[in-house]
Every structure is written in C-alpha cells, then in structure tokens.
Amino acid sequence: MSAEEPMFRIVRGVPTAEELAALVGAIVVRTRPVAAAAPAAVSHWSRSARPAGASPIAGPGAWRASGLPR
C-alpha cells in the first residue's frame, strides 16, 4: 500500500466528521499492539487498612486474631 492510498474508504452513506473520527479511533485502538499490563498501584490509603505481614490464616481463633494488631 502506498502513501497515497487511503487506509479505508466509505462505500455507502455520508458520515459526519464525528462519525469518521470515531471510526478512525476504533481502528487505531484495534491495530495497536497490546502492551504488557502493569500491576495496579496500591494507594497508601488502601494499604493502611490491610494488616501487615501475611494474610490471615483460617482456623480456631482466626476471627479474633484478624482484628488484633500484630
């Protein structure tokens, strides 16, 4: 495909500028390579509500230990 050839053409109808922009945006998003998903950052606020250390372990007295400071 040369630089003068259009990437796509409208074969029927008369789209508005907004419709063409939406079409081009959808094509660009679909043809973009998928980047590796970075792990989501955990905010300090949500981290402060979690107990420090390992996750609570189920068993006798676990419900009581889950509310106690470590």
UniProtKB/TrEMBL annotation:
Residues 44-70 are annotated as: Disordered. GO terms for molecular function: acetyl-CoA carboxylase activity; propionyl-CoA carboxylase activity. Residues 44-62 have a biased composition (Low complexity). This is Acyl-CoA carboxylase epsilon subunit.
